[in-house]
Amino acid sequence: MEKETDCFKCRHLYITWEKDFPYGCKKMGFKSKQISSIVVQQASGEKCLYFEEKEKR
C-alpha cells in the first residue's frame, strides 16, 4: 500500500488563518477546508504530484 502524502512536510503547504479555508497550497494556488493532498486525491484520483519535502532547519 502506498503512503499518503503528508502535506505538513511539504514546502508548498501554508496556513491561511482564514476560518473557512485554513489550508492552502502555494504550488497549486488554492485554499481549502481540508489538507491539500485530500482535495487533490478526491478531485483527480491520484496523489499530489507537486509534493516537495521541506528543507531541514
Molecular structure report:
By secondary structure, the chain is α+β, with helices and mostly antiparallel strands. It has a domain at 7-44. Helices cover 16% and strands 16% of the residues. The chain is built from one helix and three strands. It has one helix at residues 36-44; strands spanning 13-15, 23-25, 30-32. A hairpin with a 4-residue loop joins strand 2 (23-25) and strand 3 (30-32). The protein starts with 12 loop residues before the first strand and ends in a 13-residue tail after the last helix.
Which features does this protein show?
16% helix, globular, alpha+beta, 57 residues, three-stranded antiparallel sheet
Give a short summary of the structure.
Helix content is 16%, strand content 16%. The chain contains one helix and three strands, in the order βββα.
